[in-house]
Structures are given as C-alpha cells and as structure tokens.
Automatic annotation (TrEMBL):
Residues 45-381 form the Aminoacyl-transfer RNA synthetases class-II family profile domain. Homodimer. This is Histidine--tRNA ligase. One of its GO terms (molecular function) is histidine-tRNA ligase activity. Belongs to the class-II aminoacyl-tRNA synthetase family. It is found in: Cytoplasm. It comes from Novosphingobium mathurense. InterPro entries: aa-tRNA-synth_II, aa-tRNA-synth_II/BPL/LPL, His-tRNA-ligase, HisRS-like_core, HisRS/HisZ. PANTHER family: HISTIDINE--TRNA LIGASE, MITOCHONDRIAL-RELATED, HISTIDYL-TRNA SYNTHETASE. Its EC number is 6.1.1.21. It is an enzyme of class 6 (ligase). L-histidine binds at E124, F125, T126, R154, Q168, E172, R300, Y304, Y305.
Length: 455
C-alpha cells in the first residue's frame, strides 16, 4: 500500500494483511469512534496450542545437544539417516498400533483431506518406517539400520515431559533376527545416555516376551487367571482382560496391584528357543558391561511384539519415568501386509532427555571467543571483513557497532570474551587492536586471521 490511508466512514472496515489472507475485521459503531488498531491486533494475538511449547535459550541448547549427540552416536553404529512424512494414511497406524489401543482410539490427530482420504499426524516413527521399508523396496538393504528424529503428535493430557506435539529420536533395525542385533541397539542406547551425561540414576529394565508360541501360551494363562479376579480389577483392566491381558501387568491402578504380583510369569511358558534367545541377549549385555535389571512386568500389549522388551527408566522425571524404550516387533510388517520380517528398535523423548541434561548440568554454554568493538564508524568495513574471516575459520565472534562509539569498548569488555579486538582510525587508516589476558591459542588464532586481511 502506498500513499496516505484514508479510512472510509463505513460500519465495517476490513484489513487484508499479507499473502496468507489473514483478515482483521473492525466493527465501528459511529464515525467518531477511535480506531486503536495496534491494541486490537495485540489483544487478538493467538496463543500457543495447549500441549505445545516454544523452546528458547538454555532449553533449546539442551534440545540441540541431545539431537547432535544422537547424530554422532548413530554414525558410530552406522545407522543410516532417514526422513519420514509427518502424516500418513490412518491405516498405517491403526493396523500397526491396533484399533483398541489408547493411541489409536483416543490420541491420534486424524483428519479427512480434500480427496476424502483419512490421514493422521504421526504419533510414532516405527509404523511409518515399516511402511516405507515395504513400499520403497528397502528390503534390498536388509539388514537395514536407520535412525531419525523429529516431531510427533498425540492428543493426551499435557504434563511434565509430555506434550501433544513432542519430539523423539528413533533407531530401528529391520530384517535381522539375531539376538546380537538387540544387544547392539541396547549398547547404542546405553552409550547415548552416557555421552549425554545423564546415565547416573537411569536403570535399564529388561524382559522377554518369548516367541509367538510362548507368548500365546502365557496370554491364555493370564486370561484364565484374571477371569477369577475380574470383579476386583479396575475398569480398564476388565476391558483389556479378553483382548489384551498383558497390559494388565503394567497397570498403574492400585486396584490391580494385588493381582498382578501373583499373575503367571512368562518364564514358565518360554520355549527352549525363546530361552536361548534371551540368554544370548543378556550374555551380550554382560560382555559389553551394560547393567540391567530383570523386569517381569515389563510388557508390550500388541501381538506382533516378540522376545526382547526394554526401558531405560529414572525417578528424576516424576511419574513419567521412562526416558527410552523399545523392543523386538517381528510381526509388525506382516500386520502392514508385508512378508514375515524380523525387526527391533527403540525411541526416546527429546524433551525428557533435555530435562535430564539440564538437571545434570551436563551442558554449559561455552564463553564467547572474540568480541569486536568498532570505536569509529569509519572502521566498520574493516571490522566487517574481520568478523566474516573469523567465522569462516571456525572462530565464534560477535561485534558491537551500534550505540555511542564511546561506550562500545566498555560494552565489549563486559561480555567477557576470551579475546577483544577494537577497531579505531589512526592517521586515516583503520587499525585493529587485540587484547587478551594471556597469549592463548585463541588469541594467536585471532591474530593470525586479522593479519591475513587488509583494511
């Protein structure tokens, strides 16, 4: 818009702002009424959606530290990076997670697109990766080791470390049935937590769900056992009894606790093959010096889970104590219409890991290496050359070139950088003066860069 803006005397004035078609409507009751546009825009500013967060400052640095550490560790283990769509066909999740699970029945963000197809914002990574393995011909790379990270979406009650838009790191191996693969993933997770500096107070809980035959025999025994106590169970557990009795074992409802303690144990139903598989996993962890505790109540409710199930837990995050969890899901790709394919993986919430990083003081912001103070505006082009050259050489730098020239040097001193460079004019020529407490390696590196450029 150019020229003066004369507001017409209309009952309704509409302003069209930006290319996105945002419209602000102002109702006027009389020609003389005031029109405080800025106040009205401010008062109508949309707030953040409940269960989302704006991450800034030290929290954002902790978040980035988790991602950067994960990226470095996954490269050590030769996991390939993948990027997955934020939304998929709803069937990808309903068929893989199960129609009766809370995630599918209560927590998914699903919508119908303009073509009438049901789509869902991804609530987890594994199903989408399994779908991609089948539809993109990734079988040729089996055993496929992949890793990713990014936002996920679930409509659940926000609480400490849990959001409706949250973020996870994820590692999966598809097409490998050997227990040594489970060990590799667990060792990788253990190393990640140690390199983040948060392994202290975090415990690896480990269990086996057996092979398909073992799990089915255990499931039948659980149904028979819990039927005798059905009237005393919580409503959720009564509903799960016939469909998903394993989920009763990890119920947090105090009404279920007296019965879960005496419920049949998976060890009584393990086949020889299942016992051998779990034995090789524990032996591998012992060889890698990864500590763990056996957790017989640790389960996965869906039928496609097999053998190893695990969680890294802590008491430093309140009720939401799991920081990383996973297991073997040999039946998932069949549930999505593919051939029988072994697979195992884990995921961890970045927000929870970030909170542990911050609480442990494992991340301290590095002091500024060099600050440039431009005490004469005529020297600004030289200073601009210098700061560009410093950054190109991997040296972090900031510059003070605004405000009163007399105060810029004092402002620079207060920032406490390792090296201070002031720019002044001497005999009509810009000059750089370096200052530091000692001739450190940083000082010498800055000096070398300054000497390499001309005013």
């Amino acid at each position: 818009m150019t020229g003066p803006c004369n507001l017409p005397d209309l009952d309704r004035i509409r302003y069209h702002i930006g290319t996105d078609g945002l419209r602000l409507a102002q109702q006027r009751s009389s020609p003389a009424a005031p029109f405080p546009l800025s106040a009205r825009v401010m008062s109508s500013t949309p707030q953040a959606i409940r269960g989302t967060q704006d991450i800034f400052g030290s929290d954002a640095e902790a978040f980035a530290h988790v991602v950067e550490t994960f990226e470095r560790v996954r490269k050590l283990y030769r996991f390939r990076r993948v990027e997955m769509p934020v939304f998929e066909k709803t069937a990808v999740f309903s068929r893989s997670l199960g129609e009766t699970t809370d995630v599918v029945s209560k927590e998914m963000y699903s919508f119908e697109d303009r073509g009438g197809e049901s789509l869902t914002l991804r609530p987890e990574f594994t199903a989408g990766i399994a779908r991609a393995y089948l539809t993109n011909g990734w079988k040729q790379f089996a055993p496929l080791k992949v890793a990713t990270h990014g936002p996920l979406f679930r409509y659940e009650r926000p609480q400490k470390g849990r959001y409706r838009q949250f973020h996870q790191i994820d590692a999966e191996v598809i097409g490998a049935a050997e227990p040594m693969v489970d060990v590799e993933l667990l060792v990788m997770a253990d190393q990640l937590l140690k390199e983040l500096g948060i392994a202290e107070g975090v415990t690896l809980q480990l269990n086996t769900l057996g092979d398909a035959a073992s799990r089915e025999a255990w499931r039948a025994a659980l149904i028979e056992y819990f039927r005798d106590h059905k009237a005393s169970l919580s409503e959720d557990s009564q509903d799960r009894l016939e469909r998903n009795p394993l989920r009763i074992l990890d119920s947090k409802d105090p009404r279920d606790k007296p019965f879960t303690a005496d419920a049949p144990k998976i060890d009584d139903f393990l086949s020889a093959e299942a016992q051998d598989f779990f034995g090789q996993v524990t032996q591998g962890l012992d060889a890698a010096s990864v500590d763990y505790v056996r957790a017989p109540a640790l389960v996965r409710g869906l039928d496609y889970y097999r053998h190893t199930a695990f969680e890294f837990v802590t008491d430093r995050l309140g009720a939401q104590g799991t920081v990383l969890g996973g297991g073997r899901y040999d039946g998932l790709l069949e549930a999505l219409g593919g051939p029988a394919t072994p697979a195992v993986g884990w995921a961890a919430g970045i927000e929870r890991l970030s909170m542990l990083v911050a609480d442990a003081g494992a991340l301290e912001e590095a002091p500024l290496t060099v600050i440039l103070a431009v005490e004469d505006d005529t020297a600004l082009p030289y200073a601009q050359k210098a700061i560009t050259a410093l950054r190109h050489q991997g040296i972090d730098a900031e510059m003070i070139a605004t405000g009163s020239p007399r105060k810029r040097f004092d402002k620079a001193v207060k920032l406490g950088a390792k090296v201070l460079v002031s720019f002044v004019m001497r005999d009509g020529v810009p000059v750089a003066n370096l200052r530091a407490a000692d001739p450190t390696a940083e000082y010498l590196a800055v000096e070398q860069v300054i000497q390499s450029i001309r005013p």
